[in-house]
From TrEMBL:
GO terms for molecular function: 1-deoxy-D-xylulose-5-phosphate reductoisomerase activity; isomerase activity; manganese ion binding; NADPH binding. It comes from Zymobacter palmae. The keyword Amino-acid biosynthesis does not apply. This is 1-deoxy-D-xylulose 5-phosphate reductoisomerase. Residues 175-268 form the 1-deoxy-D-xylulose 5-phosphate reductoisomerase C-terminal domain. Its cofactor is Mg(2+); Mn(2+).
Length: 428
């Protein structure tokens, strides 16, 4: 059955006990997980961790944008109650393929269906792993429903930090960072005092600054001139992490670190001045917290997102993630150096947006998404990405970002303005 949205399909039959690989599983002990962006890099890693712990977790819903073959394979392995895909024709194809295979997963399509599965009443955990601003509405729906959020989609906090954190405080939703640096920082901080797991008043806890590590990306050490002719393939070849193409380009421009500064401000209630970026090419130290007494706490591990995902899934417990423990004897050396902000101006643009407040980060994010897309499509040069963002930020006024409607309106304005600049540059 295919539907654009449905509210009753969660009336779901469960047997009191069933056997899984010889183990007795009690469904009432399983947390019900929704993976938004299941077919992506984070989604795939999440399902890998979940599959290791069938007695703890059960997949309630999986979503994809267009990757229907991959979503089909995931449904056949995890048997979610619901699968969501963007377009009706893909939903019909998926539904027929599932029926042929005897799988009872119901298929929905469209943006409303994403919000519906994210906010469904019998869900425990929502993994927010859609790429970009498209993740905001379903992630916020999950926050408003009071579910535990495993947050990978940093763009939703960048676009709607105040709305997002206020909604979590109102609903009591627990927000656990999956982004590797923020997860590392979370692990190095005292246990949060509120149910949301958002931190407040870190100064009171003796924290003087956060040290946000950056790999420097594939072009670390390159001058602005050397960056002029780089290709999308070069930009997507991250030295340490295997990730989706958009975040890979963000790492290459260091806009990823800029977005992460903003993300950290909202998660940990800080200002950009409290967050120092440290280039650490090995990506083994995932970030650090400096305390007043001279202590610097760090979290280390192999660069594999299954570690922060497993940490956030099981918190405050610890579970197997499939990642081998770090072999410290194999570490030749750790390097730490300041970023080159002249070659990588996106860091400064992100700080400027956060300091300006209101809709400035919305515009930053929207212009960045258009710029990255245009670069990946061969329309603009790598070095034009920060120029485009700067031009859009300079042109659009900053207004209060107090409703989702305003945020989406400014997002649309900025995307439209950025696309027009791309078209103009292509004609020149
Ligand atoms: N990859 C990583 O290691 C890390 C990622 N993150 C963040 O996690 C998020 C996901 O990143 P990553 O997994 O790398 O990205 P991917 O590009 O690998 O996957 C993105 C996922 O989102 C879906 N998607 C894309 N566009 C839309 C849309 N318009 N509507 C609905 N679904 C959509 C994709 O579906 P489909 O496959 O059908 O296109 C896919 O499932 C990003 O916000 C990123 O910044 C944070 C830290 C680390
Ligand atoms: C894995 C992860 O969290 C990414 O955000 C990663 O940090 C990107 O690497 P950069 O440090 O190069 O941005
Ligand atoms: Mn990160």
């Amino acid at each position: 059955m295919v539907a654009s949205a449905c509210s009753s399909f969660y009336a779901h039959k469960r047997t009191p006990f069933f056997s899984l690989q010889g183990r007795r599983v009690n469904p009432s002990m399983q947390k019900r997980i929704v993976v938004l962006g299941a077919t992506g890099s984070i989604g795939t890693s999440t399902l890998d961790v979940i599959a290791r712990h069938p007695e703890r977790y059960r997949v309630a819903a999986l979503t994809a944008h267009v990757s229907r073959d991959k979503l089909l394979a995931q449904c056949l392995q995890h048997h979610p109650d619901t699968a969501v895909i963007a377009h009706e024709h893909d939903a019909r194809w998926l539904s027929a393929a599932l029926q042929d295979a005897g799988c009872e997963t119901q298929v929905l399509y469209g943006e409303q269906a994403l919000c519906d599965v994210a906010s469904a009443a019998d869900v425990d955990v929502v993994v927010a792993a859609i790429m970009g601003g498209a993740g905001l509405a379903p992630t916020l729906a999950a926050v408003r429903a009071g579910h535990q959020i495993l947050l990978a989609n940093k763009e939703s906090l960048v676009m709607a930090g105040p709305l997002f954190t206020d909604a979590a405080r109102q609903s009591g939703a627990r927000v656990l960072p999956v982004d590797s640096e923020h997860n590392a920082i979370f692990q190095c901080l005292p246990a949060p005092s509120s149910s949301t797991a958002l931190h407040t008043d870190l100064a009171q806890a003796g924290v003087i600054r956060l040290l946000l590590t950056a790999s420097g990306g594939p072009f670390r050490g390159w001058s602005r001139d050397q960056l002029h002719d780089v290709t999308p393939e070069q930009a997507c070849a991250h030295p340490n992490w295997s990730m989706g193409r958009k975040i890979s380009v963000d790492s290459a421009t260091m806009m990823n670190k800029g977005l992460e500064i903003i993300e950290a401000c909202w998660l940990f209630d800080l200002t950009p001045d409290d967050i120092h970026v440290v280039v650490h090419p090995q990506s083994i130290v995932h970030s650090m917290v400096a305390y007043r007494d001279g202590s610097v706490l760090a979290q280390l591990g192999n660069p594999d997102m299954r570690t922060p995902i497993a940490h956030a899934l099981a918190w405050p417990e610890r579970i197997d993630s499939g990642v081998a423990p770090l072999d410290v004897f194999s570490m030749a050396q750790f390097e730490f150096r300041p970023p080159d902000e002249e070659a990588f101006p996106c860091l400064g643009l992100a700080r400027r947006a956060m300091n300006a407040g209101g809709t400035a980060p919305v515009v930053l994010n929207a212009a960045n998404e258009v710029a990255v897309d245009a670069f990946l499509n061969g329309q603009i040069r790598f070095t034009a990405i920060p120029k485009l963002i700067d031009e859009v930020m300079a042109a659009l006024p900053v207004v209060a970002a107090d409703t989702l409607e305003t945020i989406f309106a400014q997002d649309a304005l900025a995307r439209d303005y950025a696309a027009k600049i791309v078209a103009r540059w292509c004609d020149e």
